Amino acid sequence: MILKGIDLKKIIQASLIASTITLVGCATPLIAPDIIANVKKVESPYLKNSSLVEVDIDPKINNREKIDIKGKDSLELALKNSKLFGTDAQHPYKITAQVLVASQAAVSFGNFEGKLGIKYTVFDDKGQQIFQDTINTIAGSDLNPLAPGVARHTRSRARNIALNVNEFVGKLETVLRK
């Protein structure tokens, strides 16, 4: 059917293709549990105490992607996988993570490489600071370059957060082991 020089069938087909690409991109996980699974693990908890995680983000950073929520989910999963902390929630160790840098290519024909900087501070059950470090990572998507851009963009952010969190947990393990 042609309506004043416009082929309605082609418009419908293009719309269906665009919708499919968008849905596939949106189905990409917001965190990277496959990378977080590689976090350094211990046989049994170093501490009987549990941990409490708080994540905030510099207000100058565009947080449309909910980087703070993705960061918190990733950090909690990494800590659970690492088994550094026990289950006693009466006197938890407090972990704060402040996102200082979060930049990522808006458009890419490759992997949407981005930078992430998070300042981690850990307080023991008495409120004493026992660890502080800023971890900077650079990462991009590991998906096929032909994958939809939305999926590659989302995966890039998730990978960067997971790699940053894993590095933090590795450093924290060294501190708690002593």
Overview of the structural elements:
The longest helix has 29 residues, at 149-177. Residues 20-28 have low confidence and may be disordered. The protein contains four helices and six strands, in the order ββααβαβββα. β5 and β6 (129-139) form a beta hairpin. The termini are far apart. α3 (67-82) packs across α4 (149-177). The chain is an alpha+beta fold and 178 residues long. It is 38% helix and 29% strand. The protein has helices at 8-26, 33-36, 67-82, 149-177, and strands at residues 2-3, 6-7, 49-57, 88-104, 114-123, 129-139.
Report the end-to-end length measured between terminal Cα atoms.
Answer: 75 Å
Proportion of residues in helical segments: 25-40%
What number is the mean pLDDT?
88
Q: Describe the global form.
A: elongated
Question: What is the number of beta strands?
Answer: 6
Strand order of the largest sheet: 3-4-5-6
Largest sheet: number of strands, sense, barrel closure: 4 strands, mixed
Element order: H for helix, E for strand: EEHHEHEEEH
**Category from helices, strands and their pairing:** alpha+beta
Separate helix tally: 4
Low-confidence stretches: 20-28
Provide the β-strand percentage band. Answer: 25-35%
User: Measured on Cα atoms, how large is the radius of gyration?
Assistant: 20 Å
